[in-house]
Amino acid sequence: MKTNFRFFLLIAIFSSLLFSACEPVDTTAPGSDARDPFVGYWQFIESSSYKSTDGQSFIVSISKDPVNSTQVLLKNFGNPGSQNVSVTGIVTASQIVIASQSMSNGWIVEGSGKTTNVAKTAMSWTYSITAGGDKTDYTAVSTLQ
């Protein structure tokens, strides 16, 4: 009888080591801001477009939106010709989503950029710009400068 009790006790201990909680574990450090890795100057390199036969390269400044803790401001997104034109984007763990919105220069933009490495220093972008009634789709890669 003692042997059976010890056997079941051993199985119970072993089983308790194998099972873990079903509650998801939050890997975000307390007090950290999901926008932090995206803040800075990003070098965008577009695929060829109507703007240029070879595509183009331009700098986009990404900063935290002081009004909304989940948003960032992207200045010069799409290279509209003025560094002061900006759009807002919503940040998730690994991407920025730009909902359809009108820029101050009259363009309508929408799209998203997703990180392509663990360090979050590179992103792959797909977006569209509607200018003068014509909608053009773009792809670009960006790297943190």
Quaternary structure type: single chain
Overall residue-averaged pLDDT value: 84
* CATH-defined superfamily: Calycin beta-barrel core domain
**Count of structural domains:** 1
Number of β-strand runs: 8
Tell me the major beta sheet. 8 strands, antiparallel, barrel
* Helix-strand makeup class: mainly beta
Name of the CATH first level: Mainly Beta
Using only C-alpha atoms, the radius of gyration works out to 24 Å
Largest sheet strand order: 1-2-3-4-5-6-7-8
Number of helices: 1
Uncertain segments are 23-28
Task: Characterise the protein shown here.
With 145 residues, this protein is mainly β. The protein has one domain: Calycin beta-barrel core domain (Lipocalin), CATH 2.40.128. It contains 1 helix and 8 strands. Strands 1-2-3-4-5-6-7-8 form an 8-stranded antiparallel beta barrel.
Outline:
By secondary structure, the protein is mainly beta. Helix content is 12%, strand content 43%. Strands 1-2-3-4-5-6-7-8 form an eight-stranded antiparallel beta barrel.
Features:
145 residues; 12% helix; Lipocalin; 43% strand; elongated; mainly beta; 8 strands
Q: What's the topology here?
A:
Layout: H1 2-18, E1 40-46, E2 57-64, E3 71-75, E4 86-91, E5 95-102, E6 108-115, E7 122-131, E8 134-144
Antiparallel strand pairs: 1-2, 1-8, 2-3, 3-4, 4-5, 5-6, 6-7, 7-8
